[in-house]
């Protein structure tokens, strides 16, 4: 029986008068009274502080129970729906572009960027002074060529101490300040990492040549006589034998570059460990990635047999002296190389877990026509390696200026890149003739347009954004050791100081009259300051295209489709499924002006309006699609609107790294 124990002043005690009656009567009266009480309670409005028993009476009534149950089930359903929607959104969202995909990579050659202390050589403080340049250009990723302590035989690619800064460039504090300043501006710093060799002044080399038991095998040594024949026919990249006799140890050591750059022995696990420790050292400091130098040279065949000659009839000793004379079967791309690089990558991944702190890795390897070798640096499906290997094929653009050739070079990469990987494009660096000099000034703007409208990451070597050209360096001015061996191999011409303005020393050194290499005489007109004021300048066009690329989905992550290539013109489409806005790029790399007929491309509208031409006067021009005009070296970005995408009808002509579709109604991207 329900016993209600309470004396609420508003209700009183409904049982008190039944206390002296018989059990039976009491029961029947009790029941009756209880139902009376219930009726009575129903008259009472619920009030705060109601006891549990009353509450229970109310709560079981349909008018409270039903809404409660509805609310309960509604909450359950909504929660489940929310979870389902969250899972669906996560599953359907394409990956966001990472920083190394969204921005071009800008290469600073630190000797030549900006000299802050007036010694004629650029330095870290100088770089810090000029960070606004990157904000202006909308560039976020900066690769700085080596600034480790070095005797500068190969200008920093000969490292004496991997954990120290060369005084020429500044101090560790200068480096830390630079990194902090870059990070506070949202810029990423990519360091050069040089695993293949050290300087001959490195502590390890000294310990190795004196046969310290731990360091004895840190380098590649073999027996030879001081003036006897070399251990084999291997040659250095800078020419002549890659073996040098060391008097201290009485053996020969291997150097695939200068004799002052002995090759490390990566068959020794201690060497791998040392290099990993150095990677950790810089990642701990906060650097955002590494450009891995000369990776294909890291391992050599232990049997040390002669490499096959390209021309077997050449007298080996007198004429086989350059890398082009040999098939470098035993000194490059050896089995085991990728395992080492994947280990480096794995170490970098440990530091990539925090959001926005992805550490990037790019490898340098020139494999020429053996493109499949380059592609291996992308890693495999199961194991990551570089985010991309540098793509050097566009360096060959000048060899044959035509639309067909440009397409051929682009296709060398696109046609060989593993599915789902991210492309990249290089047209210059500190080792190669500036493209403005090899291709000619006429094509500079078109080449920048190509770089910034192709899919993937563009690399820009300092000065390319203003169309800087090579300088002439006389024999007595040569600084580059490679040039001292062979004048025509000198890399000085592409390393002249960046032309900031028309002042003394082009603003590179504002303190004294020193510059480590001569300036290009055109600096009074070709400089950053002058070009900032000119809407039609190479710089203004670079900036416009880079900004357009970063704000337009079809350009930064959409389809890339070949449309046309002939003796002059190379043309392609950038589009994204679901998005009406698309871009047609038409670039004239030939020797004649051209009229291109794209009337057979039915996905294009009949009239095409030029959003941007490298010839500023042609901005806004409208062409019928049957007659698109371009001058020599002119590039056009045409923006158009369409409901018909090109890629579904031409799958063989189109590439995309990660497919994504756009839903215009709610402005989102999804996997499709
Ligand atoms: C890389 C560098 C080059 C250097 C060589 C040896 O190829 O880009 O400048 O001379 O490695 O370190
Ligand atoms: Mg200096």
Automatic annotation (TrEMBL):
The keyword Transmembrane helix applies. It comes from Astatotilapia calliptera (Eastern happy). It holds the Pfam family Alpha-amylase. The gene is SLC3A1. GO terms for biological process: amino acid transport; carbohydrate metabolic process. It comes from the Eukaryota. Keywords: Amino-acid transport, Cell membrane, Disulfide bond, Glycoprotein, Membrane, Phosphoprotein, Signal-anchor, Transmembrane, Transmembrane helix, Transport. It is a single-pass type II membrane protein. GO terms for cellular component: apical plasma membrane. InterPro entries: GH, GH13_cat_dom, Glyco_hydro_b, O16G_dom_2. The keyword Transmembrane applies. Residues 107-495 form the Glycosyl hydrolase family 13 catalytic domain. Disulfide-linked heterodimer composed of the catalytic light subunit SLC7A9 and the heavy subunit SLC3A1. The heterodimer is the minimal functional unit. Assembles in non-covalently linked heterotetramers (dimers of heterodimers) and higher order oligomers; the oligomerization is mediated by SLC3A1 likely to prevent degradation in the endoplasmic reticulum and facilitate heteromer trafficking to the plasma membrane. Disulfide-linked heterodimer composed of the catalytic light subunit SLC7A13 and the heavy subunit SLC3A1. The chain crosses the membrane at residues 70-92. This is Amino acid transporter heavy chain SLC3A1. It is found in: Apical cell membrane.
């Amino acid at each position: 029986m329900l016993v209600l124990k309470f004396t609420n002043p508003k209700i009183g005690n409904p049982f008190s008068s039944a206390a002296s009656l018989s059990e039976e009567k009491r029961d029947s009266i009790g029941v009756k009274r209880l139902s009376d009480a219930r009726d009575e309670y129903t008259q009472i409005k619920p009030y705060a502080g109601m006891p549990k028993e009353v509450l229970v009476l109310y709560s079981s009534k349909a008018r409270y129970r039903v809404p409660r149950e509805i609310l309960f089930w509604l909450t359950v359903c909504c929660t489940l729906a929310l979870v389902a929607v969250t899972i669906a959104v996560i599953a359907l969202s394409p990956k966001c572009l990472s920083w190394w995909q969204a921005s071009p990579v800008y290469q600073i050659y630190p000797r030549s960027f900006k000299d802050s202390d007036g010694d004629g050589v650029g330095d870290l403080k100088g770089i810090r002074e000029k960070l606004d340049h990157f904000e202006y250009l909308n560039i976020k990723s900066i690769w700085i060529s080596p600034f480790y302590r070095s005797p500068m035989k190969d200008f920093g690619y000969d490292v004496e101490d991997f954990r120290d800064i060369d005084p020429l460039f500044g101090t560790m504090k200068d480096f830390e300040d630079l990194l902090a300043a870059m990070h506070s501006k949202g810029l990423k710093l990519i360091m050069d990492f040089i695993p293949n060799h050290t300087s001959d002044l490195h502590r390890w080399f000294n310990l190795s040549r004196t046969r310290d038991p731990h360091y004895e095998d840190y380098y590649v040594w073999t027996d030879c006589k001081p003036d006897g024949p070399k251990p084999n026919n291997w040659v250095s990249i800078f020419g002549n034998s890659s073996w040098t006799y060391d008097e201290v140890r009485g053996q020969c050591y291997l150097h695939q570059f200068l004799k002052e750059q002995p090759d490390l022995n990566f068959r020794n696990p201690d060497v791998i460990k040392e290099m990993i420790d150095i990677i950790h050292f810089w990642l701990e400091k906060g650097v955002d990635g590494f450009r891995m130098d000369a990776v294909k040279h890291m391992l050599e065949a232990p049997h040390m047999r002669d490499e096959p000659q390209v021309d077997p009839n050449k007298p080996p000793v007198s004429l086989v002296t350059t890398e082009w004379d040999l098939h470098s079967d035993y000194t490059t791309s050896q089995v085991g190389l990728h395992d080492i690089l994947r280990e480096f990558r794995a170490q970098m991944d440990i530091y990539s877990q925090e959001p926005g702190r992805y550490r990037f890795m790019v490898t340098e390897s020139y494999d020429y026509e053996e493109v499949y070798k380059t592609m291996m640096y992308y890693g495999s499906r199961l194991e990551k390696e570089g985010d991309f290997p540098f793509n050097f094929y566009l360096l060959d653009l000048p060899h044959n200026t035509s639309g067909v050739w440009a397409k051929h070079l682009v296709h060398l990469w696109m046609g060989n890149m593993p599915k789902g990987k991210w492309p990249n494009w290089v047209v210059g660096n500190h080792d190669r003739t500036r493209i403005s000099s090899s291709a000619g000034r006429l094509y500079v703007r078109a080449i920048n347009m190509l770089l910034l409208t192709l899919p993937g990451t563009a690399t820009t070597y300092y000065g390319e954004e203003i169309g800087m050209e090579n300088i002439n360096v006389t024999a007595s001015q040569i600084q580059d050791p490679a040039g001292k061996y062979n004048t025509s191999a000198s890399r000085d011409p592409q390393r002249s100081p960046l032309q900031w303005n028309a002042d003394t020393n082009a603003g590179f050194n504002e303190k004294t009259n020193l510059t480590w290499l001569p300036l290009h005489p055109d600096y009074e007109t070709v400089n950053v300051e002058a070009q900032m004021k000119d809407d039609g300048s190479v710089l203004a066009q670079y900036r416009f295209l880079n900004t357009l690329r970063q704000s337009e989905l079809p350009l930064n992550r959409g389809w890339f489709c070949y449309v046309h290539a002939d003796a002059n013109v190379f043309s392609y489409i950038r589009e994204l499924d679901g998005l009406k806005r698309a871009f047609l790029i038409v670039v004239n790399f030939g020797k004649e002006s051209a009229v291109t007929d794209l009337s057979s491309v039915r996905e294009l509208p009949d009239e095409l309006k030029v959003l941007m031409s490298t010839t500023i006067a042609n901005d806004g021009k409208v062409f019928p699609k049957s007659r698109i005009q371009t001058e020599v070296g002119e590039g056009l970005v045409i923006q158009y609107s369409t409901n018909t995408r090109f890629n579904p009808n031409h799958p063989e002509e189109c590439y995309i790294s990660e497919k994504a579709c756009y839903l215009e109604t709610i402005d989102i991207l999804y996997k499709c």
